[in-house]
C-alpha cells in the first residue's frame, strides 16, 4: 500500500500552493451555487462517486463527530478519508487519510491534480472557484487516488449549497442545529435547518442528534419528502449514561442494534458524549443500515479519538485549556464542561472573536464561569477589534473583570499571571486556570504560540 501521507517535512512548493489557495475567494464569501464545484468534479471524473460518503452538517460538534466516525471506521478495518474545516494551524489538517493529514508533498500533489481544471472553470463561470470549493475538489480527488473505502465529509457551512454536497451521502449526520453564520444562513432556525437538511437525499440514512422541535420538524419533513431513512437520538439510539473521569469519560451507548458499555472517550464534556452516541449510530447505519458493531471495535476506536482545540489542555502551571467555541451554543457547552472537568479558582478567559458572530451571546454564556476575561484579537481581518470586544465585555462582566490586551501572545501572558496570582480577588495561589476561546482562529494561533505541535493525526500510515 502506498504511503499517501508521505514523509513529514517541508516541501519547496507548499508555500506557493498555500498562497494560491488563499488568493481565491475566502470561505466567508459565499455564492449559493453548486455550478462551479460541479464543473470541477465533472472535469476530474466525479471522484466523489468512487467511494461511499458519510456526510455531516449541524452547528456545533461536526469536527469532533467526524473524528469519532473516522476512528470507528478505521477500527473496523476500513481505509478512510476525512475532510473537515476550518483548520487550526495548517491547511493540511483539512484532508486526512487513515487518520493523518496529508503531508506537504501529498498536499502539493493534490493541488497539482486539480490545478489545470481550475483555470477552465474560472474562465467559464461568472465567479472563480473559491478557496473552499478548490480544497473540496482536492479532497475528493485525493480520496479517489488513495483510494479510500469511505470518506467522512464535514460541510463547510449549511448543506444544500455547500461545495461538499456534490457527493450523495450513504449516511447523513446532523449534529445539533442552532443559529450561527446568521449573515449567510439567516437568523431563523427553520430556514437554517432547511439549508442543512439538503444533505438528506433519496436513499440516504439520516442520523439526527437531539434537535429543537422546530429543527426536528424540518429535518423529518425533508426525510419524508426524499424517502430517506431516519434514526433519532433519544428514540432509535441514545447516550444511556456517562461517568466523567480523569482525561475523559466512560460511556454506555444504546446504538441502533445493541448497547455498548465501558466505552472510554478521551474527550471532555457532556456534548462529546452525545457526539460519541451519534458517531456509533452513524457507523452502525453505514455498515449495514443499522447492523451491530463488535463492542471491541467501538471501544478501541473511540479510545483513540483526539480533537485538538476542543477543551484541549496544552500547558500546566497554570493549566491552559483551548476550546474553539464561537457561538452561544458552543460557549455554553464549553462552560459546562470546564466546570465539570476542572476545579479552577479562578478561571481566567482569553477571548478573541470574529466580528460576524453573536459576540454578546458568547460573552453571556461564558460569564458564569469566568472570574475575569482578557479581550484580545486574532491576526485576521475578520476579528473584532480588541477594544470593541472589551467594551462589549464590560457591559456583561463590569469594568473590574475585563482586561484589554491587543496582542494574543501578551494576552496569554496576562491571563496566566492572573491565574497564578489568584486573579483580582486573591484566591488560592496556583489554583487558577486559563480558558482560551472565541474562535477556531484564536485557538489555532494560541496553540502555535504555546508550542503545541500541529496535528499529526491519530492514525497509522
Concise summary:
This protein is an alpha/beta fold. Helix content is 39%, strand content 17%. The chain has helices spanning 14-22, 35-43, 62-75, 104-124, 131-145, 182-185, 189-196, 213-226, 270-288, 295-303, 328-341, 359-366, 386-397, 408-421, 440-449; strands at 53-57, 80-83, 95-97, 100-101, 150-154, 171-174, 205-208, 229-232, 238-245, 248-254, 259-265, 312-315, 319-322, 347-351, 372-375, 402-404, 433-437.
Based on the model shown, name its key terms.
461 residues; disordered N terminus; 2 domains; UDP-N-acetylmuramoyl-L-alanine:D-glutamate ligase; 6-stranded mixed sheet; 8-stranded mixed sheet; Protein-Tyrosine Phosphatase, Chain A; alpha/beta
Write the SSE topology.
Layout: H1 14-22, H2 35-43, E1 53-57, H3 62-75, E2 80-83, E3 95-97, E4 100-101, H4 104-124, H5 131-145, E5 150-154, E6 171-174, H6 182-185, H7 189-196, E7 205-208, H8 213-226, E8 229-232, E9 238-245, E10 248-254, E11 259-265, H9 270-288, H10 295-303, E12 312-315, E13 319-322, H11 328-341, E14 347-351, H12 359-366, E15 372-375, H13 386-397, E16 402-404, H14 408-421, E17 433-437, H15 440-449
Amino acid at each position: 500500500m502506498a504511503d499517501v501521507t508521505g514523509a513529514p517535512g517541508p516541501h519547496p512548493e507548499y508555500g506557493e500552493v498555500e498562497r494560491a489557495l488563499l488568493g481565491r475567494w475566502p470561505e466567508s464569501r459565499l455564492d449559493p451555487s453548486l455550478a462551479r464545484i460541479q464543473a470541477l468534479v465533472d472535469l476530474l471524473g466525479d471522484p466523489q462517486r468512487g467511494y461511499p460518503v458519510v456526510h455531516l452538517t449541524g452547528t456545533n460538534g461536526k469536527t469532533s463527530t467526524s473524528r469519532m466516525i473516522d476512528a470507528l471506521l478505521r477500527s473496523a478495518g476500513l481505509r478512510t478519508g476525512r475532510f473537515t474545516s476550518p483548520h487550526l494551524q495548517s491547511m493540511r489538517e483539512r484532508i486526512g487519510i487513515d487518520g493523518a493529514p496529508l503531508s506537504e508533498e501529498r498536499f502539493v500533489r493534490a493541488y497539482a491534480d486539480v490545478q489545470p481544471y481550475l483555470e477552465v472553470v474560472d474562465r467559464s463561470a461568472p465567479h472563480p472557484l473559491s478557496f473552499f470549493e478548490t480544497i473540496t475538489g482536492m479532497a475528493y480527488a485525493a480520496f479517489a487516488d488513495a483510494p479510500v473505502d469511505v470518506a467522512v465529509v464535514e460541510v463547510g457551512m449549511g448543506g444544500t449549497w455547500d461545495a461538499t454536497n456534490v457527493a450523495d451521502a450513504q449516511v447523513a449526520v446532523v449534529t445539533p442545529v442552532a443559529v450561527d453564520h446568521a449573515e449567510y444562513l439567516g437568523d431563523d432556525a427553520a430556514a437554517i435547518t432547511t439549508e442543512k437538511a439538503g444533505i438528506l437525499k433519496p436513499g440516504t440514512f439520516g442520523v439526527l442528534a437531539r434537535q429543537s422541535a422546530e429543527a426536528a420538524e424540518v429535518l423529518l419533513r425533508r426525510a419524508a419528502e426524499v424517502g430517506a431513512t431516519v434514526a433519532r437520538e433519544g428514540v432509535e439510539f441514545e447516550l444511556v449514561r456517562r461517568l466523567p473521569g480523569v482525561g475523559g469519560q466512560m460511556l454506555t451507548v444504546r446504538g441502533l442494534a445493541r448497547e455498548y458499555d465501558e466505552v472510554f472517550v478521551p474527550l471532555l464534556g457532556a456534548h462529546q458524549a452525545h457526539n460519541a452516541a451519534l458517531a456509533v449510530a452513524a457507523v452502525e447505519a453505514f455498515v449495514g443500515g443499522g447492523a451491530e458493531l463488535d463492542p471491541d471495535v467501538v471501544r478501541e476506536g473511540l479510545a483513540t479519538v483526539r480533537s485538538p482545540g476542543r477543551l484541549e489542555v496544552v500547558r500546566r502551571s497554570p493549566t491552559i485549556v483551548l476550546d474553539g467555541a464561537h457561538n452561544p451554543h458552543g460557549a455554553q457547552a464549553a462552560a459546562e464542561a470546564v466546570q465539570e472537568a476542572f476545579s479552577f479558582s479562578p478561571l481566567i478567559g482569553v477571548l478573541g472573536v470574529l466580528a460576524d458572530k453573536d459576540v454578546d451571546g458568547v460573552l453571556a454564556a461564558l460569564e458564569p464561569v469566568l472570574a475575569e476575561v482578557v479581550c484580545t484579537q486574532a491576526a485576521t481581518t475578520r476579528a473584532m477589534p480588541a477594544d470593541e470586544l472589551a467594551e462589549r465585555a464590560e457591559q456583561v462582566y463590569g469594568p473590574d473583570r475585563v482586561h484589554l490586551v491587543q496582542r494574543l501572545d501578551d494576552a496569554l501572558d496576562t491571563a496566566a499571571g492572573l491565574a497564578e496570582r489568584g486573579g483580582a480577588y486573591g484566591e488560592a495561589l496556583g489554583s487558577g486556570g486559563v480558558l482560551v476561546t472565541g474562535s477556531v482562529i484564536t485557538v489555532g494561533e494560541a496553540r502555535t504560540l504555546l508550542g503545541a505541535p500541529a496535528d499529526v493525526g491519530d492514525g497509522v500510515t
